[in-house]
Hints:
Elements: H1 2-24, H2 29-32, E1 37-41, H3 49-59, E2 62-67, E3 73-78, E4 98-102, H4 112-116, E5 123-128, E6 134-139, H5 150-165, E7 174-176, E8 182-184, E9 192-197, H6 203-217, E10 224-229, H7 234-241, E11 249-251, H8 255-261, E12 268-272, E13 278-283, H9 289-302
Parallel strand pairs: 1-3, 4-6, 9-10, 10-11
Antiparallel strand pairs: 2-3, 5-6, 7-8, 9-12, 12-13
Amino acid sequence: MGNFFKRTGLTIFCILLLSRLTHAQGYNEDFWNNPNVIWKTYTGTIITAAFAKKMHTQGNYEIMERDLRGGRKEVKMVPPEKKVKRAPRGFNWNAPNLVIKDDAGEVLPDGMHRLLLRQKTIKWRADTLSDNSIEVVFNLNSSKPWKSAWAESNIEYVREWVDRWKGKQLPNFSFKDLDDRTVDNKSVEGQFLVLNFWNSKCVNCSKEIRQLNKMTQAFFDQKVTFLAPNFEQSGTVRMFLEEHNFYYKVLPNAQSLIADLGLEYFPTHMIVDKSGKILDINVGGTYNIGEEIGKKLSWLLSE
């Protein structure tokens, strides 16, 4: 009888192991290299295909697919519920005055803290600053496992991408706004450009709109044009704007500019000078983005 249970247990273990291996290898390279897929975390943060693959194969994340218009597809990585580490009781990770950094002082991309909280070896602290904002600092030097996932595919990618475009010319573009008027490089020539790359499914994009609106009012009589390129169809954008006033000039169907830039994170903000050179880039949600852009614009205009 004892041998029977041992054999049965071994058989079940082998079946589970084979299932796990099959699950990890259930998608071929064509799936991971599909240029028409928008890869996201479960909370909506856009990620790279390489990182999504690691989440699936190494972290046992499930895949949730949704077809979009124009032959595109959205793929979300759904975490295994049993492995999710809950945030400390009473701490509000969605507070508008929350700033999340690493121990080198770099602001972390939107959503990264959720992945870091699952690593029990990574320590963090929260401090209230003089302006009543809350600064959370993750001590990433205390743990190495996180580097094989997020850092290799995201942090380094973002930094390299920013370095690649900062100081370069904004690619040529020509789009119709929601009033069917053409907006292109020539129509904004001789003006500073502030661009907000966003989409209606991005939570942080929606959170930023109110403070961005306030910021635009401070520069209404200056030679500054505020553009909001979006890869979604005009109908989707119009439905969103029925509930959200946005003072930027919204440009739907702007996939070509987003593709030319190789942009993969939303929201992303850019400041472009009168000659079309990209002066500043801010990637990911920032609680005081309106203030940050306003300060930089004021300095540029004073020059």
